[in-house]
Specification:
Blueprint: H1 3-7, H2 17-27, H3 51-61, E1 70-78, H4 81-107, E2 113-116, E3 121-129, H5 134-148, E4 165-171, H6 180-197, E5 202-204, H7 217-228, E6 232-241, E7 247-258, E8 262-264, H8 270-275, H9 279-299, E9 307-310, H10 313-316, H11 321-331, E10 339-344, H12 354-364, E11 369-375, H13 382-387, E12 392-395, H14 397-400, H15 407-423, E13 426-429, H16 435-444, E14 448-449, H17 460-475
Parallel strand pairs: 4-5, 7-9, 9-10, 10-11, 11-12, 12-13, 13-14
Antiparallel strand pairs: 1-3, 1-4, 2-3, 6-7, 6-14, 7-8
Helix pairs in contact: 3-6, 4-5, 9-11
Length: about 475
């Protein structure tokens, strides 16, 4: 292609020498050498460049200076493309792709470059910018989804279809390796997570969260089947005050009621669900079970202060986490403080990913309680604990075991409790297995306890009787033996 053809015939005659020379120099620079003679292949329907050009552009991003700003790769997938194509035929499928490409280009920023990666998939190169960060990428993803969340006119005016889409992206600073292939693979891996969660989902690539857990296909299939049939559900373990013995809450814990093996703990199914990308479906189910339990306790007049659920770092990294929690709280007409979120201590460590930190910050704003789980097993700083307005420290069971007879354990736990007191934080110890451990923790000043020594996790229907029996026991006056007896 000639330069005259490239710039558009008569327009080149308007360029003076002072303008044309820099353009020629840039055009013939090493990064562009031969580009005029070797234009990238274009998609037949949309006219967009394809995967090889996207990879080249991504490779170029990693050759720029470190201070050039953040860049990213973003991928959009149309989940119901095949169904629309089947309904409207080949011409309809072509019109669909052209309309989607048009909307994506109209919604993206001027300097973002869009590519056609396949019949249902489009990729963006978000070039280096000082204003590009995690929040900006999420906002762009939301704008793209909003642009596609409108009827696709032009295929059938009587019943225009809707495009169901999902987005995955990877920031260059989070890429497993500094290469185009690596960042595109990472973005498509995040997209896979988004597709698992359904239309309208957005996922960012987080390195620590994409190490697949080894499991067999049959394990994943059976666990997913159990989740779909609601054989996996929340059981509840009580938490009690060491001062009064009153119930201060329940923790919702996932259990699989296997038709042949009976109740199974999470280690029998969590690895399979993690490998299948179904952890968000599990957490949504447990959240629903937990809030339904609070509602049922309220209707029964049992006055349980709150219920707690566990969220992993992967779940904290979900951009729509707060929206889902807020929606469920509204659905059950419960105040946010009735729900406690237990987050792993690693989420507050210096190694936590930016997406996880953002999830914690937005979670804090909902008004839900936040408990720091597994306290003592990682290196959460006092600054981080204060920053995220943690309500309660949950002392890990490894420090609780033997605290009644091991002086070293007792010193460590005492130090933890002193720190919590200085920070104005509540405390709870998990894994209590004996009355001696219970008594020792009470003497040391731990405010709450839970564990098999109090009660094992139980189905919701069993909690009613347990609560009444426990409170009945507290109401009984102490028995004093006379000297004669």
């Amino acid at each position: 292609m000639s330069l005259a053809a490239f710039w558009g015939g008569g327009e080149i005659a308007l360029l003076g020498t002072a303008i044309l020379f820099p353009l020629l120099s840039a055009w013939l620079a090493p990064d562009h050498a031969g580009a005029a003679a070797d234009q990238p292949a274009r998609d037949a329907d949309t006219g967009l460049p394809q995967r090889p050009d996207l990879l080249n552009r991504l490779d170029h991003l990693f050759r720029l200076p470190a201070d050039a700003g953040e860049s990213a790769c973003l991928v959009v997938d149309v989940l119901n493309h095949d169904a629309i194509a089947q309904q409207y035929g080949a011409s309809g499928a072509k019109a669909l792709r052209m309309e989607i490409a048009k909307r994506l280009k109209a919604t993206s920023r001027d300097h973002d470059v869009i590519h056609a990666l396949g019949p249902t998939r489009f990729g963006f190169v978000l070039p280096n910018s000082a204003s590009l960060d995690l929040e900006a990428a999420i906002q762009l993803s939301r704008r793209l989804l909003a642009a596609l969340d409108q009827p696709l006119t032009g295929l059938d005016e009587r019943a225009p279809p809707m495009a169901d889409c999902a987005v995955g992206f990877c920031l260059a600073s989070r890429s497993p390796e500094p290469s185009g292939h690596a960042i595109l693979d990472a973005a498509e891996s995040a997209l896979g997570d988004a597709v698992e969660q359904g239309p309208g989902s957005i996922r960012a690539f987080v390195r620590a969260l994409h190490h697949a857990t080894a499991t067999t296909g049959s394990d994943s299939s059976e666990a997913l089947h159990a989740l779909e049939r609601r054989q996996i559900a929340a059981w509840f373990q009580p938490q009690v005050s060491t001062d009064t013995g009153e119930i201060t809450g329940f923790e919702a814990l996932a259990r699989w009621m296997h038709p042949e093996k009976g109740p199974l703990s999470p280690d029998h199914f969590l690895p399979a669900l993690e490998a299948a990308g179904a952890m968000e479906r599990l957490s949504t189910l447990i959240l629903d079970n937990a809030l339904a339990a609070v509602r049922k306790w309220d209707l029964a007049g049992l006055e349980i202060p709150h219920v707690s659920i566990n969220l992993s770092e992967a779940e904290l990294a979900s951009p729509d986490l707060v929206d889902r929690i807020s929606w469920e709280l509204d659905r059950y007409a419960l105040a946010p403080e009735r729900l406690a979120i237990e987050v792993p201590e690693s989420a507050l460590s210096g190694q936590a990913e930016e997406m996880v930190i953002r999830g914690l910050e937005t979670l804090r704003e909902t008004g839900c309680r936040i408990d720091l789980d597994n306290f003592g097993t990682c290196n959460a700083s006092i600054t981080a604990i204060g920053r995220f307005a943690i309500n309660r420290l949950k002392i890990d069971r490894t420090f609780v075991s033997g605290v009644d007879h091991d002086p070293e354990q007792k010193r460590v736990v005492s130090a933890m409790l002193t720190m919590a007191e200085q920070l104005g934080l509540e405390t709870i110890a998990e894994g209590i297995e004996s009355s001696a451990e219970h008594a020792t923790l009470a003497q040391l000043g731990c405010g709450n306890v839970q564990g098999f020594g109090i009660a094992r996790p139980m189905p919701l229907e069993n909690t009613m009787t347990w609560i009444e029996d426990h409170r009945s026991g507290l109401a009984q006056p102490p028995v004093f033996l006379s000297r004669k007896s």
